[in-house]
Amino acid sequence: MSIPDWPVGERPRERLLQQGPQALSDAELLAIYLRVGVRGKSAVDLARELLRQHGDSLARLAQASIKSLSATPGIGLAKAAQLKASFELARRALQETMREQSLMNAPDPVRDWLRLNLAHLPHEVFVALWLDNQNRLIASEELFRGTLNQTSVYPREIVKSALAHNAASVIFAHNHPSGAREPSQADNLLTRQLREALALVDVRLLDHFIVAGNAPPLSMAERGWL
Asked: How far is residue 112's CA from residue 95's CA, in Å, rounded to a whole number?
């Protein structure tokens, strides 16, 4: 049954207008974007199939290539391109928020941005969010990239980058492709080394996040490890 044949109170668009977007599932929100389904499948069915093929994860869907998106029957190149554009707009909106307000007072945009960018990468990356003296974003930077299991991080290069951005503070993050959310002993040791190195140039390390799969990124500061 196509969506126009559903009872009005069950149609995603009407529910969004009446109850707000937070009342809808991921598939229902995607269905509004897709607008129409294919023969034998409603837009909601098509959205569920698209999510299923990407691990039932919006973060993984956001990182999927146009080729991967368009491989789902009913998702041609045009819709795939539109989806990529919408996810990029979400990233830019989050980054804009991070530039305009203190990240110490609004940590959610940081977590959302990290999940969109790092959650389902097949390799490990180490990124820095360089902040001004009001803890607003100056720049985001991928500093190092590694293999499935590890990356090599060099404190000297990080100090040079901090000085180049004239940063007052920094938030670090790296992902665990294995899905393990807890930091390793090497992660804890590296965090201490970076904090000490940056203290020599008067740059504060505010937090270090571990990003793993669909779980909320782990904050070392909130755990009391900084």
From this structure: 10
